[in-house]
Amino acid sequence: MSSITKQQPVTREELLRRAKEIGELAEKYALQTDEERRLPEEVTQKLKESNFHLLHRPKAYGGQDLDFETFGDIIRTVAYHSVSAAWATYFVIIHETWPSFIPKDARDTLFNSNELMADVFAPVGKVEDADDGKGYLVSGQWNFCSGVLWSDWIALGAFHTMKDGDKPELSLFIVRKEDVEVIDNWDTMGLRGTGSNAVKLDKNYVAPEYVFPLSRVVEGATAPDGNYEEDYLLFNVPYIAYFLSGFSQILVGGLKRLVDEFVERTENRVRVYNNNSQEKDNSSSQRTLGEIKMEYNALEKIADDYLARMQGYAEKGVRVLEEEERQELFAMRGYVAKHAPLIATRLLTVLGGNALYRESGAERFVRDLIAVSCHPTHLYEDAMVGYGKTIVGQDGHPMW
Protein backbone atom coordinates (compact mmCIF):
# COMPACT_ATOMS: atom_id res chain seq x y z
CA MET A 1 0.00 0.00 0.00
CA SER A 2 1.52 3.30 -1.07
CA SER A 3 1.68 6.22 1.30
CA ILE A 4 0.28 9.65 0.56
CA THR A 5 2.78 12.07 -0.93
CA LYS A 6 2.94 15.31 0.98
CA GLN A 7 1.37 18.13 -1.02
CA GLN A 8 2.53 21.68 -1.48
CA PRO A 9 -0.15 23.97 0.00
CA VAL A 10 -2.63 25.08 -2.63
CA THR A 11 -3.35 28.82 -2.74
CA ARG A 12 -6.69 30.26 -1.73
CA GLU A 13 -7.20 31.56 -5.26
CA GLU A 14 -6.65 28.12 -6.77
CA LEU A 15 -8.94 26.44 -4.26
CA LEU A 16 -11.76 28.89 -5.02
CA ARG A 17 -11.20 28.42 -8.73
CA ARG A 18 -11.65 24.68 -8.30
CA ALA A 19 -14.74 25.28 -6.18
CA LYS A 20 -16.27 27.45 -8.88
CA GLU A 21 -15.55 24.79 -11.50
CA ILE A 22 -17.33 22.17 -9.41
CA GLY A 23 -20.29 24.45 -8.79
CA GLU A 24 -20.68 25.50 -12.41
CA LEU A 25 -20.40 21.92 -13.63
CA ALA A 26 -23.00 20.78 -11.11
CA GLU A 27 -25.33 23.59 -12.17
CA LYS A 28 -25.01 22.49 -15.80
CA TYR A 29 -26.44 19.11 -14.77
CA ALA A 30 -29.00 20.47 -12.30
CA LEU A 31 -32.14 19.13 -13.99
CA GLN A 32 -30.55 15.73 -14.60
CA THR A 33 -29.42 15.63 -10.97
CA ASP A 34 -32.96 16.25 -9.74
CA GLU A 35 -34.27 13.41 -11.90
CA GLU A 36 -31.56 10.88 -11.05
CA ARG A 37 -31.38 11.80 -7.35
CA ARG A 38 -27.60 11.92 -7.38
CA LEU A 39 -24.79 14.07 -8.73
CA PRO A 40 -23.59 12.88 -12.14
CA GLU A 41 -20.31 11.02 -12.42
CA GLU A 42 -18.74 14.05 -14.13
CA VAL A 43 -19.35 16.15 -11.02
CA THR A 44 -18.18 13.60 -8.46
CA GLN A 45 -15.08 12.94 -10.55
CA LYS A 46 -14.33 16.66 -10.66
CA LEU A 47 -14.77 16.74 -6.88
CA LYS A 48 -12.27 13.91 -6.45
CA GLU A 49 -9.80 15.59 -8.78
CA SER A 50 -10.01 18.81 -6.74
CA ASN A 51 -8.29 17.02 -3.81
CA PHE A 52 -10.55 18.89 -1.41
CA HIS A 53 -10.73 15.69 0.63
CA LEU A 54 -7.07 16.19 1.58
CA LEU A 55 -7.40 19.72 2.92
CA HIS A 56 -8.17 19.05 6.58
CA ARG A 57 -6.25 15.82 6.93
CA PRO A 58 -3.08 15.84 9.04
CA LYS A 59 -0.12 17.13 7.04
CA ALA A 60 1.47 13.68 7.22
CA TYR A 61 -1.37 12.46 5.02
CA GLY A 62 -1.41 15.26 2.50
CA GLY A 63 -3.28 17.93 4.46
CA GLN A 64 -2.46 21.59 4.69
CA ASP A 65 -4.24 23.00 7.77
CA LEU A 66 -6.64 24.96 5.58
CA ASP A 67 -7.77 28.14 7.32
CA PHE A 68 -11.44 28.28 8.23
CA GLU A 69 -12.27 31.37 6.18
CA THR A 70 -11.15 29.65 2.98
CA PHE A 71 -12.87 26.45 4.08
CA GLY A 72 -16.13 28.39 4.33
CA ASP A 73 -15.60 30.24 1.07
CA ILE A 74 -15.03 26.96 -0.79
CA ILE A 75 -18.40 25.72 0.39
CA ARG A 76 -20.17 29.01 -0.31
CA THR A 77 -18.67 29.21 -3.80
CA VAL A 78 -20.00 25.79 -4.74
CA ALA A 79 -23.37 26.47 -3.08
CA TYR A 80 -23.82 29.61 -5.17
CA HIS A 81 -24.24 27.27 -8.15
CA SER A 82 -25.45 24.01 -6.57
CA VAL A 83 -26.51 23.38 -2.99
CA SER A 84 -26.28 19.60 -3.43
CA ALA A 85 -22.73 19.86 -4.77
CA ALA A 86 -21.81 22.14 -1.86
CA TRP A 87 -23.18 19.54 0.56
CA ALA A 88 -20.99 16.91 -1.11
CA THR A 89 -17.95 19.22 -1.11
CA TYR A 90 -18.35 20.02 2.57
CA PHE A 91 -18.69 16.37 3.47
CA VAL A 92 -15.68 15.12 1.51
CA ILE A 93 -13.56 17.57 3.51
CA ILE A 94 -14.88 16.85 7.00
CA HIS A 95 -15.26 13.10 6.54
CA GLU A 96 -11.52 12.84 5.99
CA THR A 97 -10.85 14.05 9.52
CA TRP A 98 -12.23 11.32 11.78
CA PRO A 99 -9.56 8.75 10.75
CA SER A 100 -7.12 11.02 12.59
CA PHE A 101 -8.68 9.86 15.87
CA ILE A 102 -8.24 6.10 15.37
CA PRO A 103 -5.09 3.92 15.78
CA LYS A 104 -2.27 4.34 13.30
CA ASP A 105 -2.59 1.09 11.35
CA ALA A 106 -6.26 1.70 10.58
CA ARG A 107 -5.57 5.38 10.02
CA ASP A 108 -2.91 4.50 7.45
CA THR A 109 -5.26 2.10 5.69
CA LEU A 110 -8.05 4.65 5.34
CA PHE A 111 -5.90 7.60 4.33
CA ASN A 112 -3.56 5.68 2.03
CA SER A 113 -6.48 4.14 0.16
CA ASN A 114 -7.27 7.69 -1.02
CA GLU A 115 -10.93 6.68 -1.24
CA LEU A 116 -13.77 8.94 -0.16
CA MET A 117 -15.63 8.45 3.10
CA ALA A 118 -19.21 8.82 4.27
CA ASP A 119 -20.84 8.65 7.69
CA VAL A 120 -24.06 8.83 9.65
CA PHE A 121 -23.71 10.08 13.23
CA ALA A 122 -27.24 9.04 14.23
CA PRO A 123 -26.82 6.40 16.98
CA VAL A 124 -29.45 4.02 15.59
CA GLY A 125 -27.29 0.90 15.30
CA LYS A 126 -27.17 -2.13 17.56
CA VAL A 127 -23.75 -3.37 18.66
CA GLU A 128 -22.73 -6.65 20.27
CA ASP A 129 -19.32 -7.76 21.48
CA ALA A 130 -17.82 -10.27 19.05
CA ASP A 131 -16.88 -13.77 20.21
CA ASP A 132 -13.19 -13.11 19.58
CA GLY A 133 -13.16 -10.82 22.60
CA LYS A 134 -11.81 -7.95 20.56
CA GLY A 135 -14.18 -6.63 17.91
CA TYR A 136 -17.85 -5.77 17.56
CA LEU A 137 -20.86 -6.97 15.57
CA VAL A 138 -22.84 -4.06 14.18
CA SER A 139 -26.42 -4.19 12.88
CA GLY A 140 -29.06 -1.70 11.82
CA GLN A 141 -30.30 0.61 9.11
CA TRP A 142 -29.07 4.18 8.82
CA ASN A 143 -30.89 6.67 6.61
CA PHE A 144 -29.32 9.86 5.24
CA CYS A 145 -25.92 8.41 4.30
CA SER A 146 -24.80 11.37 2.20
CA GLY A 147 -22.14 10.55 -0.36
CA VAL A 148 -22.53 6.79 -0.07
CA LEU A 149 -22.82 6.46 -3.86
CA TRP A 150 -19.29 7.77 -4.45
CA SER A 151 -17.59 6.72 -1.20
CA ASP A 152 -15.88 3.46 -0.25
CA TRP A 153 -15.70 3.76 3.55
CA ILE A 154 -18.68 4.39 5.84
CA ALA A 155 -18.72 5.23 9.56
CA LEU A 156 -22.01 4.48 11.34
CA GLY A 157 -23.17 5.63 14.75
CA ALA A 158 -24.29 3.54 17.73
CA PHE A 159 -24.25 3.67 21.51
CA HIS A 160 -22.35 0.83 23.14
CA THR A 161 -20.25 0.15 26.21
CA MET A 162 -16.81 -0.35 24.72
CA LYS A 163 -14.43 -2.98 26.05
CA ASP A 164 -12.25 -0.35 27.68
CA GLY A 165 -15.22 1.70 28.93
CA ASP A 166 -17.73 1.50 31.76
CA LYS A 167 -20.83 3.12 30.23
CA PRO A 168 -22.53 3.40 26.83
CA GLU A 169 -20.91 5.97 24.57
CA LEU A 170 -21.45 7.18 21.03
CA SER A 171 -18.97 5.76 18.56
CA LEU A 172 -18.82 5.41 14.79
CA PHE A 173 -18.10 1.94 13.45
CA ILE A 174 -16.15 2.01 10.18
CA VAL A 175 -16.98 -0.47 7.42
CA ARG A 176 -16.36 -0.92 3.71
CA LYS A 177 -19.25 -0.01 1.42
CA GLU A 178 -18.84 -3.33 -0.36
CA ASP A 179 -19.82 -5.04 2.91
CA VAL A 180 -23.12 -3.20 3.41
CA GLU A 181 -26.46 -3.06 1.62
CA VAL A 182 -27.24 0.32 0.06
CA ILE A 183 -31.00 0.97 0.04
CA ASP A 184 -32.23 3.25 -2.74
CA ASN A 185 -34.67 5.39 -0.74
CA TRP A 186 -33.44 8.95 -1.37
CA ASP A 187 -36.46 10.60 -3.02
CA THR A 188 -36.88 13.95 -1.33
CA MET A 189 -38.06 17.50 -1.83
CA GLY A 190 -34.58 18.99 -1.77
CA LEU A 191 -30.88 18.12 -1.75
CA ARG A 192 -31.72 15.42 -4.27
CA GLY A 193 -28.23 15.43 -5.74
CA THR A 194 -26.63 14.27 -2.50
CA GLY A 195 -27.76 10.68 -3.10
CA SER A 196 -28.20 10.26 0.65
CA ASN A 197 -29.52 6.71 0.53
CA ALA A 198 -29.80 4.35 3.46
CA VAL A 199 -27.32 1.62 4.38
CA LYS A 200 -28.03 -1.62 6.21
CA LEU A 201 -25.81 -3.99 8.20
CA ASP A 202 -26.52 -7.33 9.84
CA LYS A 203 -23.90 -8.31 12.41
CA ASN A 204 -20.99 -6.97 10.39
CA TYR A 205 -17.69 -7.46 12.19
CA VAL A 206 -15.76 -4.30 13.05
CA ALA A 207 -12.27 -4.55 14.50
CA PRO A 208 -11.57 -2.29 17.51
CA GLU A 209 -9.08 -0.15 15.58
CA TYR A 210 -11.90 0.79 13.16
CA VAL A 211 -14.00 2.52 15.81
CA PHE A 212 -14.08 6.32 15.94
CA PRO A 213 -14.70 7.16 19.64
CA LEU A 214 -16.84 10.22 19.10
CA SER A 215 -17.93 10.72 22.71
CA ARG A 216 -14.30 10.72 23.81
CA VAL A 217 -13.30 13.15 21.08
CA VAL A 218 -16.07 15.51 22.18
CA GLU A 219 -14.50 15.38 25.66
CA GLY A 220 -11.10 16.34 24.22
CA ALA A 221 -9.43 13.07 23.19
CA THR A 222 -7.01 13.06 20.26
CA ALA A 223 -5.29 10.06 18.62
CA PRO A 224 -5.43 7.04 20.97
CA ASP A 225 -1.81 6.10 20.26
CA GLY A 226 -0.29 9.51 20.85
CA ASN A 227 -0.22 12.91 19.21
CA TYR A 228 1.70 12.00 16.09
CA GLU A 229 1.20 15.56 14.88
CA GLU A 230 0.76 17.88 17.83
CA ASP A 231 -0.11 20.95 15.78
CA TYR A 232 -2.75 19.14 13.73
CA LEU A 233 -5.56 21.65 13.27
CA LEU A 234 -8.40 19.39 14.39
CA PHE A 235 -6.64 18.26 17.54
CA ASN A 236 -6.82 21.90 18.59
CA VAL A 237 -10.48 22.82 18.07
CA PRO A 238 -13.82 21.58 19.50
CA TYR A 239 -14.44 18.80 17.02
CA ILE A 240 -18.25 18.79 16.83
CA ALA A 241 -18.36 22.57 16.47
CA TYR A 242 -15.96 22.21 13.54
CA PHE A 243 -17.77 19.25 12.01
CA LEU A 244 -21.05 21.19 11.89
CA SER A 245 -19.60 24.51 10.75
CA GLY A 246 -20.30 24.04 7.03
CA PHE A 247 -24.08 23.92 7.11
CA SER A 248 -24.35 27.67 7.65
CA GLN A 249 -21.87 28.22 4.82
CA ILE A 250 -24.06 26.17 2.45
CA LEU A 251 -27.12 28.18 3.45
CA VAL A 252 -25.37 31.52 3.02
CA GLY A 253 -23.86 30.56 -0.34
CA GLY A 254 -27.14 29.30 -1.78
CA LEU A 255 -29.10 32.24 -0.44
CA LYS A 256 -26.64 34.71 -1.97
CA ARG A 257 -27.46 33.29 -5.39
CA LEU A 258 -31.16 34.00 -4.85
CA VAL A 259 -30.47 37.49 -3.52
CA ASP A 260 -28.28 38.34 -6.51
CA GLU A 261 -30.92 37.03 -8.92
CA PHE A 262 -33.58 39.07 -7.13
CA VAL A 263 -31.52 42.24 -7.49
CA GLU A 264 -30.92 41.56 -11.18
CA ARG A 265 -34.57 40.80 -11.92
CA THR A 266 -35.72 43.85 -10.02
CA GLU A 267 -33.43 46.03 -12.10
CA ASN A 268 -34.75 44.59 -15.37
CA ARG A 269 -38.37 43.70 -14.59
CA VAL A 270 -41.28 45.50 -16.27
CA ARG A 271 -44.72 45.24 -14.64
CA VAL A 272 -47.09 44.90 -17.58
CA TYR A 273 -50.15 44.99 -15.33
CA ASN A 274 -48.98 48.23 -13.75
CA ASN A 275 -48.75 50.53 -16.79
CA ASN A 276 -45.45 48.92 -17.87
CA SER A 277 -43.72 50.50 -14.91
CA GLN A 278 -40.09 49.74 -14.09
CA GLU A 279 -39.87 47.52 -11.04
CA LYS A 280 -36.69 49.23 -9.86
CA ASP A 281 -38.66 52.53 -9.57
CA ASN A 282 -41.30 50.97 -7.33
CA SER A 283 -40.85 52.09 -3.72
CA SER A 284 -42.25 48.79 -2.44
CA SER A 285 -39.61 46.87 -4.40
CA GLN A 286 -36.90 49.24 -3.22
CA ARG A 287 -37.91 48.61 0.37
CA THR A 288 -37.93 44.85 -0.22
CA LEU A 289 -34.43 45.09 -1.68
CA GLY A 290 -33.19 46.95 1.35
CA GLU A 291 -34.79 44.51 3.78
CA ILE A 292 -33.57 41.42 1.96
CA LYS A 293 -30.01 42.69 1.71
CA MET A 294 -29.88 43.56 5.39
CA GLU A 295 -31.34 40.21 6.40
CA TYR A 296 -28.84 38.40 4.20
CA ASN A 297 -25.94 40.49 5.55
CA ALA A 298 -26.91 39.56 9.10
CA LEU A 299 -26.82 35.83 8.32
CA GLU A 300 -23.53 36.20 6.48
CA LYS A 301 -21.99 37.93 9.50
CA ILE A 302 -23.13 35.14 11.81
CA ALA A 303 -21.60 32.54 9.49
CA ASP A 304 -18.40 34.61 9.29
CA ASP A 305 -18.23 34.93 13.07
CA TYR A 306 -18.66 31.19 13.53
CA LEU A 307 -15.62 30.47 11.37
CA ALA A 308 -13.61 33.25 12.98
CA ARG A 309 -14.24 31.62 16.35
CA MET A 310 -13.04 28.29 14.97
CA GLN A 311 -9.82 29.97 13.85
CA GLY A 312 -9.42 31.46 17.29
CA TYR A 313 -9.90 28.10 18.97
CA ALA A 314 -7.25 26.59 16.70
CA GLU A 315 -4.76 29.30 17.57
CA LYS A 316 -5.36 28.81 21.31
CA GLY A 317 -5.69 25.02 21.23
CA VAL A 318 -9.24 24.95 22.62
CA ARG A 319 -10.73 21.45 22.32
CA VAL A 320 -13.58 21.64 24.84
CA LEU A 321 -15.89 24.64 25.19
CA GLU A 322 -17.67 26.10 28.17
CA GLU A 323 -21.33 25.07 28.11
CA GLU A 324 -22.78 28.48 27.26
CA GLU A 325 -20.38 29.05 24.38
CA ARG A 326 -21.03 25.58 23.00
CA GLN A 327 -24.75 26.29 22.98
CA GLU A 328 -24.25 29.76 21.53
CA LEU A 329 -22.62 28.12 18.49
CA PHE A 330 -25.62 25.80 18.25
CA ALA A 331 -27.89 28.86 18.38
CA MET A 332 -25.88 30.57 15.64
CA ARG A 333 -26.31 27.56 13.37
CA GLY A 334 -29.98 27.35 14.25
CA TYR A 335 -30.58 31.03 13.55
CA VAL A 336 -29.07 30.80 10.06
CA ALA A 337 -30.92 27.54 9.40
CA LYS A 338 -34.27 29.08 10.26
CA HIS A 339 -33.95 32.40 8.50
CA ALA A 340 -32.15 31.46 5.27
CA PRO A 341 -35.07 29.38 3.91
CA LEU A 342 -37.57 31.98 5.13
CA ILE A 343 -35.79 34.68 3.14
CA ALA A 344 -35.48 32.32 0.18
CA THR A 345 -39.20 31.56 0.20
CA ARG A 346 -40.04 35.25 0.34
CA LEU A 347 -37.75 35.89 -2.62
CA LEU A 348 -39.45 33.17 -4.64
CA THR A 349 -42.90 34.62 -4.09
CA VAL A 350 -41.78 38.17 -4.90
CA LEU A 351 -39.97 37.07 -8.06
CA GLY A 352 -43.29 36.04 -9.56
CA GLY A 353 -44.59 33.15 -11.64
CA ASN A 354 -41.60 32.84 -13.95
CA ALA A 355 -39.48 31.77 -10.99
CA LEU A 356 -41.58 28.60 -10.64
CA TYR A 357 -40.17 27.03 -13.79
CA ARG A 358 -37.60 24.35 -13.01
CA GLU A 359 -35.27 25.74 -15.66
CA SER A 360 -35.02 29.01 -13.76
CA GLY A 361 -33.31 27.30 -10.83
CA ALA A 362 -34.88 29.58 -8.21
CA GLU A 363 -37.39 27.01 -7.00
CA ARG A 364 -34.63 24.40 -6.72
CA PHE A 365 -32.51 26.66 -4.52
CA VAL A 366 -35.50 27.26 -2.26
CA ARG A 367 -36.21 23.53 -1.97
CA ASP A 368 -32.58 22.79 -1.25
CA LEU A 369 -32.22 25.46 1.42
CA ILE A 370 -35.35 24.18 3.16
CA ALA A 371 -33.86 20.68 3.09
CA VAL A 372 -30.57 21.89 4.58
CA SER A 373 -32.47 23.55 7.43
CA CYS A 374 -34.03 20.19 8.41
CA HIS A 375 -30.76 18.69 9.61
CA PRO A 376 -31.03 17.87 13.35
CA THR A 377 -27.74 19.56 14.24
CA HIS A 378 -29.21 23.03 13.79
CA LEU A 379 -32.95 22.77 14.46
CA TYR A 380 -33.96 26.24 15.60
CA GLU A 381 -36.21 25.30 18.52
CA ASP A 382 -33.68 22.89 20.02
CA ALA A 383 -30.90 25.42 19.54
CA MET A 384 -32.69 28.29 21.25
CA VAL A 385 -33.84 26.14 24.16
CA GLY A 386 -30.32 24.85 24.65
CA TYR A 387 -28.78 28.31 24.51
CA GLY A 388 -31.41 29.81 26.78
CA LYS A 389 -30.89 27.13 29.41
CA THR A 390 -27.16 27.79 29.58
CA ILE A 391 -27.69 31.52 29.94
CA VAL A 392 -29.41 30.81 33.27
CA GLY A 393 -26.78 28.30 34.34
CA GLN A 394 -28.36 25.01 33.25
CA ASP A 395 -27.01 22.33 30.94
CA GLY A 396 -27.75 22.75 27.25
CA HIS A 397 -28.40 20.21 24.53
CA PRO A 398 -26.50 16.99 25.37
CA MET A 399 -24.98 16.61 21.90
CA TRP A 400 -25.03 19.76 19.77
Automatic annotation (TrEMBL):
InterPro entries, per the entry: Acyl-CoA_DH_C (IPR013107), Acyl-CoA_Oxase/DH_mid-dom_sf (IPR046373), AcylCo_DH-like_C (IPR036250), AcylCoA_DH/ox_N (IPR013786), AcylCoA_DH/ox_N_sf (IPR037069), AcylCoA_DH/oxidase_NM_dom_sf (IPR009100)
Domain Acyl-CoA dehydrogenase/oxidase N-terminal, chain residue ranges per copy: 27-87
UniProt keywords, alphabetically: Oxidoreductase
Cited Gene3D superfamilies: Acyl-CoA dehydrogenase/oxidase, N-terminal domain (1.10.540.10), Butyryl-CoA Dehydrogenase, subunit A, domain 2 (2.40.110.10), Butyryl-CoA Dehydrogenase, subunit A, domain 3 (1.20.140.10)
Coiled-coil ranges per UniProt: none
Keyword Transmembrane helix annotated: no
Pfam families: Acyl-CoA_dh_2 (PF08028), Acyl-CoA_dh_N (PF02771)
A GO MF term: 3-methylbutanoyl-CoA dehydrogenase activity
GO BP, one annotated term: L-leucine catabolic process
Entry keyword Oxidoreductase: yes
Residues covered by the Acyl-CoA dehydrogenase C-terminal domain: 247-376
Highest taxon of the lineage: Bacteria
Name this protein carries in UniProt: Acyl-CoA dehydrogenase
